[in-house]
Amino acid sequence: MTRHAEILVVDDNPGDLALIRESFRECSLPVQVVPVLDAEHAYQFLDDPRRTPPDLIILDLNLPRIDGFEVLEHIRADERFWATPVLIMSSSTMRSDVTRSYDLHANAYIEKPSNLEAYFEIARGIVKLWLEPLANTLTEATAN
What we know:
By secondary structure, the protein is of the alpha/beta class.
């Protein structure tokens, strides 16, 4: 992969954004984390016709004004993002939040970790499961 994998992270907590950004710095692939603090900024990013879709989206549910469920609905209503993995990362452990996330076609539901090492583990898992296959596909496509 010659370019950085781009991850859009929608979370209103600057501390969580910093932990997510830090956790991807040590990964095997170059990753660019694009943080946005609320739904409005996420919509501006996603709806910009000059941008290509991010390679992956990490979305918090508890956002100010417009919650993560509405953002997820917005993402999945746009065919440009049908193939973009959306991972919910929330502090909520309510079964109804997990179920609703999957009903709205989230690809995974991850409980926010409590320490930096757990963030690193999650980042490594995301790279292995979601981004390495993408990197391999891009490498094969450019080789042909």
